[in-house]
Design goal:
The chain is of the alpha/beta class and 234 residues long. The chain is 31% helix and 21% strand. It has an eight-stranded parallel barrel, surrounded by five helices. α2 packs parallel to α3 and α7 packs across α9. The longest helix is centred in the first third of the chain and has 10 residues.
Length: 234
Amino acid sequence: MLAKRIIPTILVRGQTAFKGPGFGAQCTRSVGSALAIARTHARRGVDELLILDIGATPEGRSPDFELVTALADGCFIPITVGGGVKSLDDIDALLRAGADKVAIGAEARRLHSTLIRDAADRFGAQAIVQIVELRTLGHSKYDLHAGELVIQAVDAEGLMGGYPQIEHTLGDFDQRLFKGPVIFSGGCSGPADMLAAIRAGADGVAAGALFQFTDTTPRDCARYLKANGVEVRL
């Protein structure tokens, strides 16, 4: 049995990390240096990091490749990077900068976009993650070429009110053809939420505010999941 993953999320704009409520333009609360937060998680030996540039798409720019290089330098854990990814050149540059996987959201939602399929063909599906917003789940298109899917509850981001609609969402999604890992993100209030998501079918769980605004650590969550019969890496 593959171990379930606990994934800290860092929302960045420039060198600064931000948290909600909300996502994108609504996310205005600075929580410090993105580099410092990433390195703290790396020292704790987390499973991986999900780093999303919340300024790139609204500002119409490419990802911050220099930031990714700085984040990856000396950070010996897998890093998934997203935000502003619009082309194969963007993906190539992110992988060269040190990202292990590239997350594609807005571009994947564009009508007739073939970016995920083309990226999987060029770089391998294991390097490509599709982000699907929970609020559009019912009419989203899924690209079966992606190696992994993140279901993101954007409206719950930063509120720590619990992952919304877990059983309904994952139960509905399991009827689809996608066979890769599914990660749930947005709204986690603690390890009990993670356990509920995993029992509903998630392969991994992401959290941001939980690790910024409470004393709960990824290791605390892993111990809780382990105590409740979930295979995790300690």
